[in-house]
Amino acid sequence: MGEFELIRRFFASAACAAGGEGIALGIGDDCALLHLPAGEQLAVSTDTLVSGVHFPQDADPYRLGQRALAVSASDLAAMGATPLAFTLALTLPDARVDWLEEFALGLSSMARDCHLSLVGGDTTRGPLSLTLTVFGRVPAGRALTRAGARPGDLLCVGGSLGDGAGALPLVLGEREDSSPEAHYLLQRYWAPQPQLALGQALRGRATAALDISDGLLADCGHIAAASSVALWVEAARLPLSPALQQLFPRDFALNCALAGGDDYRLAFTLPANELPAVQAAWPDVRVVGRVEAGQGVHLLDAAGNESRPPALGYQHFGSQGD
Amino acid sequence: MGEFELIRRFFASAACAAGGEGIALGIGDDCALLHLPAGEQLAVSTDTLVSGVHFPQDADPYRLGQRALAVSASDLAAMGATPLAFTLALTLPDARVDWLEEFALGLSSMARDCHLSLVGGDTTRGPLSLTLTVFGRVPAGRALTRAGARPGDLLCVGGSLGDGAGALPLVLGEREDSSPEAHYLLQRYWAPQPQLALGQALRGRATAALDISDGLLADCGHIAAASSVALWVEAARLPLSPALQQLFPRDFALNCALAGGDDYRLAFTLPANELPAVQAAWPDVRVVGRVEAGQGVHLLDAAGNESRPPALGYQHFGSQGD
């Protein structure tokens, strides 16, 4: 038995521990088999993370396992889907047992948090990269898409923005900091919590939704285009975490929130009459703008004047790291 | 818009052309949405192909597109699943339009042949590799698995074996040959035809099945282990294509059939009373051995004596190229 066959068995035993409703057949045959309750659809999303492009080459394997699955699961949250299962295609230059054990622990930890079971995959030799495909289920016709925002809706986000971009100097080793605030930002970067419960709660309430991976303004552009509306973002209303505000000047923190990727918060449009119920259950939800007739994304500064969107001054790891 | 965003649009327009039953939402949102008829399960399989490991670095992109999808679709055939859709995660060192156009044409050609629609994926920068995830549907409880072979069953294959391994000297440029036989072998390697219709026809007839990717003997080992039986393979009964026999000495051709990978024929176990109906509809199906009580895979030579399984004398591209 080759070393890569051993890896397959390693993940297979990890998968058995997870179990899972909706899984008729897991790892070990030519295909996995999933079943859906009547009247439900399957939501599917695929993401690839490449070493040196989407994460540092010396990334801690436990954190990498956590983050890889969180990034993918966030797409299920964005559709309002209930998590079901995932496959992992792992390409590795060599089969180092200690690296794999740490990676599998991080992956399993996030899998438990997200209620996702590993049902299949492939392990190959080559430059380090990971492709995860996640599966969720959603009642037919009730998935949250990017189309559907209507003039008059509020533009909301699921919580503080900019932490992922704020963490990057720490992730890249450009800044050393052992403060609790730095630890908080690193945790937000390496173990973002996909807003799965919020996404499910927004079914039938939100008119459009997505998860913020490329930055609030860029991602709002997807809603604006798919819904044929204009989105107006009010800079003064953006929620910033205490840690981000503590570690950085306000202008930089604001730019992280507007243009930084890797937040994995939901952004969604909501009829105003739905807001009280949503905020009662999800107090971190904030209104950050509104939907109007027109097109594109527009930014209003604190004085209420339209201003030019900021650009972050450096290229970083993350979804923008094509 | 970055060059990789252009690639995404390029594949998105290719996907629209395909259309497809069972697809509620295709490319362009956070997830694709699939729906299944009542009483059916979803079959899922993921495969990665890495440049320089699973295919030559200078592989023709049209052929690579064809082969990548065929290899994955073959896993659906092995479960008896009806093809539905696939996702493509493509990692590329750069965005060369001519390469992408050829690759997309080859991929689309195989997608049409297999009735598979592209519903999503990811495009990232990095060392060339592809991860495809394929989706099929199968009536609940009727998928063909590797478990279920019973003593007394016949061991069958879906057609000639060894062509993939026989093509390798040509694929690797170790042998120059422009004969029709060489062309046939290259076609079998680069555009294997997943036996999707045969797989579906075997539902309710075959007791176990898989597709031959690692070589007949190695793959029979998976059936033997999952079914807790012994498989006896009779070398004299292996079907060899005229092209393979023309180009190579009989011993080498036979070794390709026994131990060579990349055939993507189905191997399955069948109660003897099912054979006439299967062969009437699928005349290329051949009995190559039988199932007995016991364990492991055993090889019988032409004289009926148990013989040692051969090993191919070189490492090659393909599923064995971990």
TrEMBL record, chains A, B:
Keywords: ATP-binding, Kinase, Magnesium, Metal-binding, Nucleotide-binding, Thiamine biosynthesis, Transferase. It is an enzyme of class 2 (transferase). Substrate binds at H54, D262, Y314. Residues 150-298 form the PurM-like C-terminal domain. It comes from the Bacteria. Pathway: Cofactor biosynthesis; thiamine diphosphate biosynthesis; thiamine diphosphate from thiamine phosphate: step 1/1. Reaction mechanism of ThiL seems to utilize a direct, inline transfer of the gamma-phosphate of ATP to TMP rather than a phosphorylated enzyme intermediate. Belongs to the thiamine-monophosphate kinase family. This is Thiamine-monophosphate kinase. It comes from Metapseudomonas boanensis. The lineage of its organism: Bacteria, Pseudomonadati, Pseudomonadota, Gammaproteobacteria, Pseudomonadales.
